[in-house]
Write a structure and sequence with these properties.
Blueprint lengths: L8 E3 L6 E3 L29 E3 L6 E3 L30 E3 L6 E3 L30 E3 L6 E3 L30 E3 L6 E3 L30 E3 L6 E3 L30 E3 L6 E3 L28 E3 H6 L1 H4 L3 E3 L2 E3 L1
Keywords: Disulfide bond, Glycoprotein, Membrane, Receptor, Repeat, Transmembrane, Transmembrane helix
Membrane topology: Single-pass membrane protein
Pfam families: Ldl_recept_a
């Protein structure tokens, strides 16, 4: 029904526990019913290292004041307009607008943590703190993660992170490919995919390729010049340099049967919209074999009307100036 030392102990309202009085209104819920944080706080016990939120909802550790994170419900711990310095001056940086103190490791890391962006005002960066993990841009504008060096994407404003002429190897050798001119390391999945990602095109130099990595959805051109998506095989468009993706003599079916038409000689699958459009897309002309594709309910139209309605009629024959179905 009560706690032993009432001056040092607080009993939770649901009587589930007695906790140290210092845990009362410290911003952390220690009672199951949260009653230790039911606080019409008038003052903080440890005034030298505690801050009382303006709405008197809690007392928080003074180190949490102006650290860029709202710990008070009303955000008053981040009301820092009159801040003159950071408490931990050796590992904190004060934003120029005095809105917050942030960890010094966030200074010049390429990400704006201060509202005014002053943590990325880095014209005089002389070195990076974590020299083994960071790369300093040549114009000293930022320190970036070393993994971003020579990855094919410019992260430095001056592009110096992609100045890779003297690169000898890629860091992640098991899943990266180094361009022959040493200009970049690219993801190995981009090697021989039909698209040049290296400036010198060396990622598409695939003469000695023996197989495609993703064998279940890739097709290797017969001249081993590239691996292309299997959906591009026998679609009527040559994607391989040697045209082998359209060598389709043994096509037994089209993958997208509702959207594709298979030429009668099985030489290709073409888009169904190319069927009976007046242009032969199949080598055997079977896409224009339209005897069974006649318009329904039309018996005769004039020769001039036949031109107007050509798309609807699709196939027929002209006799004596009339268009006969």
């Amino acid at each position: 029904t009560h706690c032993g030392n009432v001056d040092q102990i607080f009993m939770c309202h649901d009587r589930s526990a007695c906790i140290n009085i210092t845990y009362k209104c410290d911003g952390i819920k220690d009672c199951v019913d949260d009653s230790d944080e039911d606080c019409e706080v008038t003052h903080c016990r440890h005034v030298d290292h505690m801050f009382m939120c303006h709405d008197r909802s809690a007392c928080i550790n003074l180190s949490l004041k102006c650290d860029g994170i709202e710990d008070c419900g009303d955000g008053s711990d981040e009301d820092c307009a009159n801040m003159t310095h950071c408490r931990h001056v050796d590992h904190m940086f004060m934003c120029h607008d005095r809105s917050a103190c942030i960890n010094l490791s966030l200074k010049c890391d390429g990400i704006e943590d201060c509202g005014d962006g002053s943590d990325e005002d880095c014209a005089n960066v002389t070195h990076c703190r974590h020299v083994d993990q960071m790369f300093r841009c040549h114009d000293r504008s930022a320190c970036i993660n070393i993994t971003l060096k020579c990855d094919g994407i410019e992260d430095c404003g001056d592009g110096s992170d992609e100045d890779c002429a003297n690169m000898t190897h890629c860091r992640h050798v098991d899943h990266m490919f180094m361009c022959h001119d040493r200009s970049a390391c690219i993801n190995l999945s981009l090697k021989c995919d039909g698209i040049e990602d290296c400036g010198d095109g060396s990622d598409e130099d695939c003469a000695n390729m023996t197989h495609c990595r993703h064998v279940d959805h890739m097709f290797m051109c017969h001249d081993r010049s590239a691996c292309i998506n299997l959906s591009l095989k026998c679609d009527g468009i040559e994607d391989c340099g040697d045209g082998s993706d359209e060598d389709c003599a043994n096509v037994t079916h089209c993958r997208h049967v509702d959207q594709m038409f298979r030429c009668h000689d099985r030489s290709a699958c073409i888009n169904i919209t190319l069927k009976c459009d007046g242009i032969e897309d199949c080598g055997d002309g079977s896409d224009e074999d339209c005897a069974n594709n006649l318009a329904v309910g039309m018996e005769s139209v004039s020769n001039s009307d036949a031109l107007t309605h050509a798309k609807r009629v699709e196939c027929g024959r002209c006799e004596g100036g009339d268009f006969k179905i």
